[in-house]
Structure formats: C-alpha cells, structure tokens
Design brief:
single chain, 3 helices, about 75% helix, mainly alpha
Length: about 70
C-alpha cells in the first residue's frame, strides 16, 4: 500500500534528516542576515517589539523555507 511507504525506516529517517537540515539552514541564514544588517535584529524583535522588522524577518524566513523545501523535493 502507498500509505505505508512513508512509514519505512529509511523514508522516515530521510525525512527527519532533511527536516533537521532545513531548520539548521534557516537558523544559520537568520544569523547571517542579522550580522549583515545594521543594528541588532534579535534586540529589535524581542526587546523593542518592532512589528515592521518582525514582518520582514517572517517573510525572509518563509522565503528561505520555501526555497529549502523546493530544493529537497
């Protein structure tokens, strides 16, 4: 059956590995963007609660996640 194909250990392990790689890539990219932009994004997001920067960062992370998902597919 096609449903049980995804429950095979090799497919499950591959999905977990690609998921972890995708998460690591998104975090590393966020850190790189934080270093390249003037100011401190993390401080602006957490301490200052800057909604505009939060929206831009969310769009950036979503775009990177879509690119990573497309590359893995």
């Amino acid at each position: 059956m096609m449903i049980f194909e995804y429950l095979k250990p090799a497919a499950l392990l591959g999905s977990l590995v690609y998921s972890l790689l995708g998460i690591v890539f998104v975090v590393v990219t966020f850190i790189a963007i934080d270093r390249l932009t003037p100011g401190n994004l993390w401080k602006e997001l957490i301490e200052e609660r800057n909604q505009a920067i939060a929206t831009v960062v969310a769009a950036m992370i979503l775009a990177i996640a879509i690119i990573v998902a497309s590359a893995m597919h």
